[in-house]
Design brief:
four-stranded antiparallel sheet; PTS_IIB_1; Gyrase A, domain 2; protein-N(PI)-phosphohistidine-sugar phosphotransferase activity; 59% helix; mainly alpha; 487 residues
Length: 487
C-alpha cells in the first residue's frame, strides 16, 4: 500500500510541474493590472487567462498525469484513458445530469455535484485509466475484432469501468464531499492554529510522499478551500486576508529557515569533513531558497538525525501559525521559493508580502540557533559529523551540469546497488531515483552516498529510493543507459 501511495505522489509531480508557467503568466498579468483583474488591460487579461487555463483545469491535468505516471511503462495511452474516465464521470455526475436522472430541478441538486470537477475526481480518473491500461494493454481479441486488441481496447474498458464508478459516486459522493467540507471547515474554524497544525503534518508526511494527499484538501478544491486556485484565480472567489493562509508560512521556512539550517550543519561538521559536506549542503540550500524544492536538504538529515527533522516540522508549523495570524499573505503555484515569492506580489490576494522578509530572517536565525545547539548538544549525525569509520567521500557530481559527471554518479549508484543484474525497475520523480531490486542485501549505502547522494530510503522489501536532487532526470537517463549496456 505504501508503495502505491509513493508512486501516486510521484505521478502527481507530472501535472504539478505544469503550474509554474501558470504562475509566470498570471504574475505578469497582475503586475500589468494589479487592481483590475485584467479588466483595465487587454494584455493583462491575456496573460491572466492564459495562466488560469491551467489553474482552472488542474483536475484534467491530474487525470492525464496520474494515468501516465501510474501505468507500468508511462505510456500515453494510459493518459488518454484517464481523460476518457474524467469526461464520463464528470458528465454523468454534472448538476444537469443528476437533475435529469432524479427528475428534480437543477436548483435542488445536492451542492456536492456542483463541485464534481475537482482534483479528487481527476486523480480517481487517472487511477482508473492506468489500472485499465496495465490490466488490458496486452488483450488479444478474435480476428474479427483484432483492430481493438491491445492498447486500442483500453479506452473502451476504461469507459465501462468509469460508468460503474460514476454509479457508485452518485450515491457516495455527497457523503464524502460533506465529510471533506466538514474537515476543512473544522480546520478553518481554528484559524491560524489550524494553519500551523496543517503545516506541521505536511512536513512529517514528506518521507512517505503522503503529504500530497493532505495538500489536496487545503490547496485544491477537494474540500472547498482551494487556496492555490483562489489566490491566483481571476474570478475573485478568494477572501482578502484569508486566502493564502495555508501557503504563506512555507516561505520563511523554505527561503530562510532551511538554508540557515544547512549553514548550521556545515558549521557543526568536523573540520576535516567540512569540505566534503559543503557541496551537498550548498546545492540543497540554493534549491530550497530559489525553487522551494526542499527534499535534497531534508533527506540529508531526515534519517541521520530524526529529532532534528521533528524540530523542523514544529518550526514549519510555528511559521504558518504566525503568518496566518499576521496580516500577511503570499502564494505559490509550485513551491514557496524565491521565484514564486516574487511572482505572487501582484496576485489579487497578496497582502503585505514584504513582511515575509523580516519574518524569514527571524526564522533563519531561529533555525540556525536551534539546529546548531541540537546538533552539538546531542551529537546528531548530520552531514560531516559521521563517525570516522563511516566516513563518506562526498563529491559535487550530483549538482553540476557536466554530462560526464552524471555518468559517474549513475555508475557509482549502480555499483552500490550490486550491479544491473540486481535492478528490476527504474523510475524517478522530481528529486528521487525510485528503484526496485532483487536483493536488498547487495545494496551498499556507503558506495551510493559516495556519489554525493543526500539520502537513501528503503520503503519496501525490494524498493530503494535515492535522493539525487533536481538533476535526477539526467542521472536517471544515464542509469538506465548503463543498465541496458550491462544486460
Amino acid at each position: 500500500m505504501m508503495k502505491l501511495f509513493q508512486k501516486l505522489g510521484k505521478s502527481l509531480m507530472l501535472p504539478v510541474a505544469c503550474l509554474p508557467v501558470a504562475s509566470i503568466f498570471m504574475g505578469i498579468g497582475y503586475a500589468i493590472d494589479p487592481g483590475g483583474w485584467g479588466a483595465n488591460s487587454v494584455f493583462a487579461a491575456f496573460f491572466i487567462k492564459a495562466g488560469s487555463a491551467l489553474i482552472d483545469n488542474m483536475a484534467i491535468l491530474f487525470a492525464i498525469g496520474v494515468g501516465i505516471g501510474m501505468s507500468d511503462d508511462n505510456d500515453g495511452t494510459a493518459g488518454l484513458a484517464g481523460l476518457v474516465s474524467w469526461l464520463i464521470i464528470t458528465t454523468l455526475l454534472s448538476v444537469e445530469s443528476v437533475g435529469f436522472l432524479k427528475s428534480i430541478d437543477v436548483a435542488d441538486v445536492a451542492p456536492a455535484f456542483g463541485k464534481i470537477q475537482n482534483q479528487f475526481i481527476g486523480i480517481l480518473s487517472g487511477l482508473i485509466g492506468s489500472y485499465c491500461y496495465n490490466k488490458f494493454k496486452g488483450t488479444k481479441l478474435p480476428d474479427a475484432l483484432s483492430f481493438f486488441s491491445g492498447k486500442r481496447c483500453v479506452a473502451m474498458v476504461t469507459a465501462a469501468l468509469s460508468v460503474v464508478a460514476a454509479g457508485i459516486l452518485f450515491f457516495v459522493w455527497p457523503t464524502v464531499y460533506d465529510a471533506l467540507v466538514s474537515f476543512g471547515k473544522s480546520i478553518i474554524s481554528t484559524g491560524s492554529i489550524g494553519a500551523g497544525i496543517y503545516a506541521f503534518f505536511n512536513r512529517l508526511l514528506i518521507p512517505t510522499g503522503l503529504h500530497h494527499a493532505l495538500n489536496s484538501v487545503f490547496w485544491f478544491d477537494v474540500a472547498g478551500i482551494n487556496d492555490i486556485g483562489n489566490f491566483w484565480g481571476s474570478m475573485g472567489e478568494g477572501v482578502k486576508g484569508v486566502t493564502g493562509m495555508y501557503m504563506t508560512g512555507f516561505f520563511p521556512v523554505m527561503m530562510f529557515g532551511l538554508p540557515a539550517g544547512a549553514l548550521a550543519m556545515y558549521h557543526s561538521a568536523k573540520n576535516k569533513k567540512k569540505k566534503l559536506a559543503y557541496g551537498l549542503l550548498l546545492a540543497a540550500a540554493v534549491s530550497s531558497f530559489v525553487t522551494g524544492v526542499t527534499e535534497p536538504l531534508e533527506f540529508a538529515f531526515m534519517f541521520l538525525a530524526p529529532p532534528l527533522y521533528l524540530i523542523h516540522a514544529i518550526l514549519t508549523g510555528l511559521s504558518s501559525f504566525i503568518c496566518a495570524m499576521l496580516p500577511v499573505r503570499a502564494g505559490f503555484n509550485f513551491s514557496a521559493g524565491l521565484i514564486d515569492y516574487v511572482l505572487s506580489f501582484s496576485a489579487p490576494m497578496a497582502l503585505n508580502p514584504l513582511l515575509l522578509l523580516p519574518i524569514g530572517l527571524g526564522f533563519g536565525g531561529l533555525y540556525y540557533t536551534i539546529f546548531r545547539f541540537a546538533i552539538v548538544k546531542f551529537n546528531l549525525k548530520t552531514p560531516g559529523r559521521e563517525d570516522d569509520d563511516e566516513d563518506i567521500e562526498l563529491q559535487e557530481v550530483a549538482v553540476t551540469s557536466d554530462g560526464n559527471k552524471y555518468t559517474r554518479v549513475a555508475e557509482t549508484i549502480l555499483r552500490g546497488l550490486g550491479g544491473s543484474s540486481n535492478v528490476t525497475s527504474i523510475d524517478n520523480c522530481i528529486t528521487r531515483l525510485r528503484l526496485e531490486v532483487k536483493d536488498q542485501s547487495l545494496v551498499n549505502e556507503k558506495v551510493i552516498k559516495s556519489a554525493g547522494i543526500s539520502g537513501i530510503i528503503r520503503p519496501g522489501k525490494t524498493s530503494v529510493q535515492i535522493v539525487v536532487g533536481t538533476h535526477v532526470q539526467f542521472v536517471a537517463d544515464e542509469f538506465e543507459r548503463l543498465c541496458q549496456l550491462n544486460k
